[in-house]
Design brief:
With 171 residues, this protein is mostly beta strands. Helix content is 5%, strand content 49%. It is globular and about 50 Å long. The two termini are 31 Å apart.
Length: 171
C-alpha cells in the first residue's frame, strides 16, 4: 500500500477520463494523455515510454479492436471495464493496469473476446454475469492476471459447446 501511495504521489500523471472508445491508446511519456496521439501537432515528442497514468475513478475501455501503443502503467482507483477487444499494436508494447476495484470483461459480441495486458486487482476479475448478453464462445487472455478471485461463471459456450479459456503469457 505504501509503494502504491508513493507511486501515485510522485510519478503518476492525471488522465481525466472516465471512458475511452476508439482505436488507439498511446503510452508515450511526453504526450498530453493516452487517448491523444503524440505528434508534432499535439506539441510533444514520442518515446521514451514508461509513463504512469492515473484516472480519477473508474475506467471503461470500449471498441471492437483497441490497440495499446507504447509502454506504461494505468492506475485505476475504481473499476476497469473492458468492452470489446484489447491488443498490443506491436510485440514491444507493454501496458499494465493496477485496478483497486474490480476488473470486468464485458464482451461486445457473441464470438471470441481477446484481451492483452498485465492486470492486477486486490479484488475480482469478473466476466459478464449469467443471463447478460452476449455470451462469447471463448476468451483469449494474453499477458498476466493477478486477482483475489477470477470468476468466469458469466461465460458459456455457443450451441451447447463448452466455454474455452486460453491464457497466453508471451507474444
Amino acid at each position: 500500500a505504501d509503494n502504491l501511495r508513493q507511486l501515485r504521489g510522485e510519478r503518476a500523471k492525471p488522465w481525466s477520463v472516465g471512458s475511452f472508445s476508439g482505436t488507439n491508446l498511446y503510452f508515450e511519456t511526453n504526450q498530453p494523455t493516452p487517448d491523444q496521439a503524440c505528434t508534432i501537432a499535439t506539441g510533444c515528442s514520442p518515446p521514451p515510454d514508461g509513463q504512469i497514468w492515473e484516472v480519477p475513478g473508474s475506467l471503461t475501455i470500449s471498441g471492437s479492436n483497441v490497440l495499446l501503443r507504447g509502454r506504461g502503467t494505468v492506475i485505476v482507483p475504481g473499476d476497469l471495464t473492458i468492452s470489446g477487444e484489447l491488443h498490443y499494436a506491436s510485440p514491444t508494447d507493454s501496458v499494465g493496469f493496477i485496478v483497486l476495484g474490480n476488473i470486468i470483461l464485458a464482451p461486445s459480441s457473441s464470438s471470441n473476446q481477446a484481451i492483452s495486458g498485465a492486470f492486477f486487482t486486490p479484488r475480482q476479475l469478473l466476466t459478464n454475469r449469467l443471463g447478460a448478453a452476449p455470451h462469447p464462445s471463448s476468451l483469449d487472455l494474453s499477458g498476466s492476471i493477478v486477482a483475489d478471485l477470477v470468476d468466469f461463471s458469466g461465460r458459456s459456450g455457443s450451441a451447447g459447446q463448452p466455454f474455452r479459456i486460453r491464457l497466453k503469457y508471451d507474444n
